[in-house]
Design goal:
This protein has 155 residues and is mainly alpha-helical. The protein has helices at 3-10, 23-39, 44-62, 74-82, 93-106, 135-142, and strands at residues 66-68, 110-114, 120-124.
Length: 155
């Protein structure tokens, strides 16, 4: 079984743990997402990308570096995540969207921590590195993002 196929089984929603992923696991998942985007097969990588850009947009609209987690709750973003893929979000949309967020966290694209008021905040750590050429600009345009995000350091 090649590593790309193995990543699919790891990410079936049954094998999550609170433990951080190893760099090898992150690299395997990144390769899987690249392959899914290049071959135009499957939707999960697209859902992850859309979730990232919705978080990116919320961060830019806030102060550029973070947003409240409640601003990108599954119920608020479901229509944008599923747009053009399915007619409407399926019954498991919360699980799918939460899986997207979890992947972004485990791969260190975003981070989460509570602020001084006890609210969960999402921080952008780094840009997506599995997009095809020109896709970053396409997503900025698609979601009407005109500002610049400020990335935090570290996972």
């Amino acid at each position: 079984m090649d590593n790309t196929r193995k990543a699919y089984f790891w990410n079936s929603g049954k094998m999550y743990s609170k433990r951080p992923w190893t760099q090898e696991h992150i690299d395997t998942q990144r390769a899987y997402f690249e392959k899914e985007r290049t071959e135009k097969k499957g939707n999960f990588a697209e859902f992850v990308v859309r979730m990232y850009y919705l978080i990116y947009k919320a961060c830019v609209e806030n102060d550029g570096s973070c947003c409240k987690a409640k601003e990108v709750r599954p119920y608020r973003v479901k229509d944008e995540i599923y747009e053009g893929i399915y007619d409407s979000p399926d019954h498991a949309f919360r699980t799918v969207i939460n899986d997207c967020t979890e992947h972004l966290k485990l791969m260190h694209y975003i981070g989460m921590r509570k602020n001084e008021k006890g609210e969960w905040m999402i921080y952008l750590n780094r840009p997506l590195d599995f997009l095809l050429e020109g896709e970053h600009e396409e997503y900025l345009k698609k979601y009407g993002i005109t500002g610049q995000a400020h990335f935090q350091s570290g996972p």
